[in-house]
Specification:
The protein has about 70 residues and is mainly alpha-helical. It contains four helices and no strands.
């Protein structure tokens, strides 16, 4: 659930794991979308988009863009 994703996000940030952080942000967006909490889904999709643009990972960027399209 969301609690585990937020723990994963904290771990990714504290251990400097950029790909894992990006994936977790995407998963947060996707989970909020599934719950029809569109404001939260959009928040995490935008956060993910900005972050992934900085780390330059096309695979994760594609997933983020898909989330944004679904929102």
């Amino acid at each position: 659930g969301l609690a585990h994703l937020f723990k994963a996000l904290q771990l990714a940030e504290s251990h400097q794991m950029p790909k894992f952080k990006a994936r977790t942000l995407n998963n947060l967006s996707y989970n909020y979308l599934a719950q029809k909490k569109l404001d939260s889904a959009l928040y995490f999709a935008n956060y993910s988009f900005k972050y992934i643009s900085e780390i330059k990972n096309d695979e994760l960027l594609a997933f983020t863009l898909r989330n944004l399209g679904d929102i």
